[in-house]
Input
Amino acid sequence: MGAQEQIGVLVVDDHAGIRAGLARLIDAERPALRCLGLAENAAQALALAQGLQPQVVLLDVNLGGEDGLALIPSLRAASACAVLVLTHAPGALLAALALRQGAVACLDKAAPSDRLLAALRLAARR
Output
């Protein structure tokens, strides 16, 4: 990926405030990063991933009762994207499950914003 190429990110989370905050954080890094779209459930995520073709999908583990981890293979098939999983309860088991499903990394939602942004950039290079 060239230094000038913009990284398109799809944010998938069932909480509107979190989606909006992540979108603002990502868009504050323009032109390097850009939030392409926001999804609150699996169906929206798949439709947007297929239509927008993001380089990275930032995916919550729990989508209002839907299993975000189960969505990873379908997202990757729909857009050949890298999936970065976000969770309130990170741990070795969850990270292993996410990686087994095809995620590039698992990150705590409480992580500092600079760590999240660095993880997005790294995910796009994979």
In short: The chain has one domain: 7-124. Residues 72 and 102 are 6 Å apart (CA to CA).
